[in-house]
Amino acid sequence: MMETVLKTGPVIEPISLNEVKRHVRICIDDSDQDDYLQDLIVVAREQVEVITWRKLGSQTWYGYLDDWPSTSYIELPFGSLISVTAIKYTDVDGDESTWSSAEYIVGTDYQKGRVTLADGYTWPSDVLYPSNAVEIEFVCGLVTIPSQVKHAMKMIISELFENREITIIGTIFKEMETVNNLLSNFRLNEL
Length: 191
What we know:
The chain contains 4 helices and 8 strands; from the N terminus they run βααβββββββαα. The strands form 2 sheets. It has a 5-stranded antiparallel beta sheet, with no helix packed on it. The protein has a 3-stranded antiparallel beta sheet with strand order 3-7-6, with no helix packed on it. The chain starts with a strand and ends in an 8-residue tail after the last helix. Helices cover 26% and strands 23% of the residues. By secondary structure, the protein is an alpha+beta fold. It folds into 2 domains: 97 residues, Hypothetical protein yqbg, CATH 1.10.3230; 82 residues, no CATH class. It is elongated.
């Protein structure tokens, strides 16, 4: 299984502060709640990312593997792969090498991106370091955000804005069914 670490999050959030203010019915000129609403925008994006297993906006990630796969490809998480910046691996002595991009093909046309061995090449044969030996730096994320996803974010923000405490129905925490329905077409399967 691939471990992941965020390097750089999105520069621009999928929805603007003004869009959120209109949705929660706050005057655009009223700045009293701006910081709180900005925080909620990030929280909503991150929640949508958890629900869908996709990243919103261009983000740079590191993916780590303990060993090369037994297949001819490595499937990258989160979908919407934009590019692979570098693949590095560390040998048993702790020496790091960058794998030549001529030896692999980056596939962005799959639901989840892939790094596939180029014809005639194999994974490097060095004896690898015992943990996180392979590091893949990649850029992924939906750049054009569908309106359903934006609306789901607004609904999450509205719920959090109006109910600043935990909402309990009986003893069960209930996710908003409408949000899940809006996001159902954008879900990826877990790795």
